[in-house]
Design goal:
The protein is about 60% helix and about 0% strand. The protein has about 160 residues and is an all-alpha fold. The longest helix is centred in the middle third of the chain and has 16 residues.
Length: about 160
């Protein structure tokens, strides 16, 4: 017997657009389906055809990820949208873990810079950190009136 909630079976249902798969699950099984995990797998395809890779990435983002917070309570609808991404044949979907949040030194500095420059996105902030050294940020902090103890905390 095939485990309906194995990642292989879940991805088969998405790739092959198996519309009856969701209805074949019990209520308990439906509650166990993690759209976030399925979205991560669906968006990543390993194939020799870059068009297929782009198709899966772009459509997953456009149909499911873009409105994730609006649709998060309707898991069945999100699953059907993921099935719209499938091309009718099984694909290999490697797991790509979400990026880790920075902790420690860079985390405190980035958080402070986010407050200082709220219109900068994460990439711009990381570029700012990469192109400046500790002394530059210490000077900015001093100009803002921070004392030596507060400045030291930024780099702990």
């Amino acid at each position: 017997m095939v485990d309906k909630l194995s990642i292989k079976e879940e991805m088969r249902a998405i790739d092959q657009r198996d519309r009856g798969w969701w209805d074949s699950l019990t209520e308990e099984e439906q509650k166990k389906v993690s759209i976030f995990v399925l979205m991560r797998y669906t968006s990543a395809v390993q194939t020799k055809n870059p068009d297929i890779e782009y198709h899966y990435l772009a459509l997953t983002n456009e149909l499911v990820n873009k409105h994730y917070n609006i649709l998060r309570r309707d898991v069945q609808l999100q699953h059907k949208l993921l099935q719209c991404v499938g091309l009718g044949t099984n694909q290999f979907h490697p797991w790509i873990p979400p990026s880790k949040q920075r902790k420690g030194k860079a985390g405190k500095l980035i958080k402070w810079l986010q407050e200082l420059y709220p219109i900068y996105n994460d990439d711009e902030l990381e570029l700012l950190v990469a192109n400046n050294d500790k002394k530059d940020f210490e000077n900015i902090a001093e100009e803002m009136g921070m004392d030596k103890k507060q400045i030291k905390e930024l780099f702990k």
